Amino acid sequence: MNICVVALGKIGLPLAVQFATKGHRVLGADVSERVVNLVNNGAVPFPGEADLDDKLKEVVAAGLLSATTDTAAAVAESEAVVVVVPLFVDAEGVPDFGWMDDATRAIARGLKPGTLVSYETTLPVGTTRNRWAPMLQEGSGLTAGTEFHLVFSPERVLTGRVFADLRCYPKLVGGIDEASAAHGVEFYQSVLDFDERPDLARPNGVWDLGSAEASELAKLAETTYRDVNIGLANQFARFADSVGVDVLKVIEACNTQPYSHIHTPGIAVGGHCIPIYPRMYLWNDPAATVVRSAREANAMMPQYAVDLLAAAYGELADAEVLVLGASYRGGVKESAFSGVFPIVEALRARGAKPYVSDPMYTSEELAAHGLPPHEGQEVTAAVIQADHAEYRTLAASDLPSVRVLVDGRRVTDPARWADVRRVVIGG
Questions:
Q1: What angle do CA 369, 372, 376 make, to 5 degrees?
Q2: Taking the complete model, does pTM exceed 0.90, yes or no?
Q3: Of the candidates 79, 44, 76, 39, which has an alpha carbon nearest to the alpha carbon of residue 60?
Q4: Please, is 197 exposed, middle or buried when counting C-beta atoms within 10 Å of its C-beta (0-12, 13-18, 19+)?
Q5: Is 161 buried (19+), middle (13-18) or exposed (0-12) by CB count in 10 A?
Q6: How confident is the model over 133-174, as pLDDT tens digits?
Q7: pLDDT at residue 92 above 90?
Q8: Residues 137, 171: contact at Cβ < 8 Å?
Q9: Are residues 176 and 145 in contact, defined by beta-carbon separation less than 8 angstroms?
């Protein structure tokens, strides 16, 4: 079939490539001419996605994938449309639907009878039925559920391993009616492959959750669970610090019991998902006090790490401190809601002079993010913010003037820091 993927970002482009590898003709639509030109030349617009470079070249060369800035025209040529346009939210989780509204109006202009439209961007519950259906109907003159089909099917993958995650996790689908759901299930069965999962109660594959709202809630619930679990782990870690207990040994022991699944505490929770979707859930359900408390607990961890540094180092005024890691997690060049920003702010509030380094970023890129790059300045303290693999072999000899190291991710080898005060969270 002909498929249109709207937005060729870190999720949309791998999806488009996946669909094309199954033999379908894919039109990728993006507002960026730069992205469109790169994709049409078989070049990946961003680094770090496993296998994407080779797969993209293959499907472009085979004529199975091309890109355009004309979303309406691409939709008009397609029998299925998959929407992965970013939804921006503020610090309180209030959505800004601007880009998605624009994309939806463009989709409506090209929509023809019988087309399936699937939204994969994480949304507040009720958005597919109450916002996108009326907008698509108004712009196309077609009736949702009878003249075109509409589903919500959340992306459940992590950047850097999208193709593996597409095979590993069930594809959730929820339609605005039974006919839409049936078309959604049939579509995803034709574009995805699934690994065997004997641990699941039913076979891995495409799962119809019964409604768009159930599918929307499933994505918010699974990400909010992670935030709440990490928040609890961080609370345990802070208490463990106060009583001189290694919380990781405690967590390891607890998780030997099949009903305990405590996550790992750490210096920050970043990225586009875990810090944001609980706020989006709260936008739907403001009475969810457990969710709110966990989000607040996690948001406090960068400040707590700086407090640990001050307790071990002493007065931080004029201290030159290196923050290692601008990415929100190791191995990914992405700084969205990274802990580096509140850590730098907290250091400055104490009068310290922070610098930032990251093996994935140039000094110019760090400066463009408002982060002061480390360019050889002598530092007397360091804070590890991201769990990059490079930091596992980091040693005191690499930073000979450092007196105190706060390892916020427990990635360093204590033996390599024998003569330095090394502090961990929950240790």
A1: 135
A2: yes
A3: 39
A4: middle
A5: middle
A6: 999 999 999 999 999 999 999 999 998 999 999 999 999 999
A7: no
A8: no
A9: yes
